[in-house]
Amino acid sequence: MQTTTLRTVNGYAISRCVPQDIPSVIDINYKTLPEHYSDEFYYEILNSFPEGFLVARGDDRVVGYIMNRVEFGFSNVKGFSLSRKGHVVSVAVLEEDRGKGLGRALVEEGIRAIQEKGCREVFLEVRITNSVAIKLYGDLGFQTTQTLHHYYRDGEDAYLMAKSLA
Ligand SMILES: CC(C)(COP(=O)(O)OP(=O)(O)OC[C@H]1O[C@@H](n2cnc3c(N)ncnc32)[C@H](O)[C@@H]1OP(=O)(O)O)[C@@H](O)C(=O)NCCC(=O)NCCS
């Protein structure tokens, strides 16, 4: 299925995910991350915030994705206040396609969609040993606001990283 290209990066196209892409997204998730979700979860995320679910495509195959959600709760960047927040649920690029700017472009375009949805901040969780992702988020203006102890099933801690969009 054809979707509008939001941006091209090194010959890859960043565009909105369509339902037909979900099996490839699930495959990438299995190959790249220890955190997996039910198939329904992907379709739910796509339904609830389609502008925030993006894929990177090269030669007609999906090589990366980002999925985001809009949530309402306590701010991660500003004292005790309630905020509409974008949550980066998952982002990944196939190993053979990394280092070409796709991860950065997916996060940047995801943030753009989150901002256009009226969110004043964006947050995510990342394994404290995932130095590549932590550096990428730091370069994009995220700051570590909290350590979430034993956040992952295997007991590893997460950093909660957040960025103000105000
Ligand atoms: C994190 C991830 C999405 C980055 O994707 P990517 O397409 O390689 O990202 P980019 O090409 O935009 O590179 C972003 C930064 O990553 C770093 N990076 C990329 N490839 C790297 C490599 N092989 N070794 C070390 N650092 C690398 C660089 O610092 C780069 O910044 P720079 O462009 O200023 O040099 C990718 O590594 C990945 O899918 N990892 C597994 C899944 C994961 O950890 N997701 C995040 C969960 S919170």
Overview of this structure, please?
The protein has one domain (5-121): Gcn5-related N-acetyltransferase (GNAT) (Aminopeptidase), CATH 3.40.630.30. It has helices at residues 22-32, 39-48, 102-116, 131-139; strands spanning 5-9, 12-16, 53-58, 61-74, 82-93, 121-127, 143-148, 158-164. The N and C termini lie far apart (35 Å). It has four helices and eight strands. The chain has 166 residues and is an alpha+beta fold. Bound molecules: coenzyme A (COA). Coenzyme A binds next to strand 5, helix 3 and helix 4. Residues 32-33, 91-93, 98-104, 126, 130, 132-133, 135-136, 139 line the site of coenzyme A.
Widest sheet: strand ordering: 1-2-3-4-5-6-8-7
User: Could you say which structural class the secondary elements and strand pairing correspond to?
Assistant: alpha+beta
Major pleated sheet: 8 strands, mixed
Radius of gyration: 15 Å
Q: What's the β-strand tally? A: 8
